[in-house]
Amino acid sequence: MAEEAVFDFIHMEAVSYVFQGGEKVSEDEAVSKLEHMGFATGYRLVERLTRESGRYKDELDIMKYICKDLWVTVYKKQIDNLRTNHQGVYVLHDNRFRLLTHMANGKQYLQYAPRYLAFTCGLVRGCLANLGVTCVVTAEVTHLPACKFQIQVQRG
Amino acid sequence: MAEEAVFDFIHMEAVSYVFQGGEKVSEDEAVSKLEHMGFATGYRLVERLTRESGRYKDELDIMKYICKDLWVTVYKKQIDNLRTNHQGVYVLHDNRFRLLTHMANGKQYLQYAPRYLAFTCGLVRGCLANLGVTCVVTAEVTHLPACKFQIQVQRG
Fold this sequence. Notes:
Two copies of one chain form a homodimer.
Chain A: H1 2-21, H2 27-49, H3 59-75, E1 81-84, E2 89-94, H4 113-130, E3 135-141, E4 147-153
Antiparallel strand pairs in A: 1-2, 2-4, 3-4
Helix pairs in contact in A: 1-2, 2-4
Main location (chains A, B): endoplasmic reticulum
Keywords (chains A, B): Endoplasmic reticulum, Golgi apparatus, Neurogenesis
Subcellular location (chains A, B): Endoplasmic reticulum; Golgi apparatus, cis-Golgi network
């Protein structure tokens, strides 16, 4: 329990620093900074995590790794549902995303949700980049604390 | 192993963001920002961690808690040595401080060490503040990756 809290709190501080602590930046710039922090973290993390595991069979196999091993490592639960159109689009549903659980449930807070998803979008993109998959990752919240991450693989 | 890496990497990103990613800030300002991020993290963390544990006997008892439970939770090892002058000064020696282990060993890198200690100084100060102890925390590196944290309790 406690170990996870360390990550939650430092993440929360990073969000709050990027949005308020530093010089004035626009919402888009701040989201982009967090996304980059996530990317660098994900890129390094997957290097550490996959050092001893084998190669992945294919793209879907890599996505399953993200949904299971990676998610458990970082968020202590698996992704609840993975869907794909088999043409390079993958949608990962998390019914209770940890970095959103501290937010009060109410429509008026939905506007702030992207701040708490940007790091993770970057994290997923960084992991995938290290595993050889170039992609764009976006996130969407329908009602807190559920959300979905969409991965759009960029072909050669 | 892997869980710790998440914290290490997000911490590293926070350091790099504060020093390079944002607007131009002085070295002192950046260290101070990280210290504040650590403070907020420590303050919240200790609230979570001590929710079920009892009260502490005295100040020394609180310091032992920091050296053992807190350090294990965040850094996966205990503080190697705790000294006190019994007048409100406590010195915590960590012979292999985790956030310094990624740094190459060499005198020329010593100048950057404070960047990797500021968050933790704040973390300790935040934990202690939540437990009712007001203090100043400073850190010093003699040779990497060993370091010591000095806690100076502020009386009444």
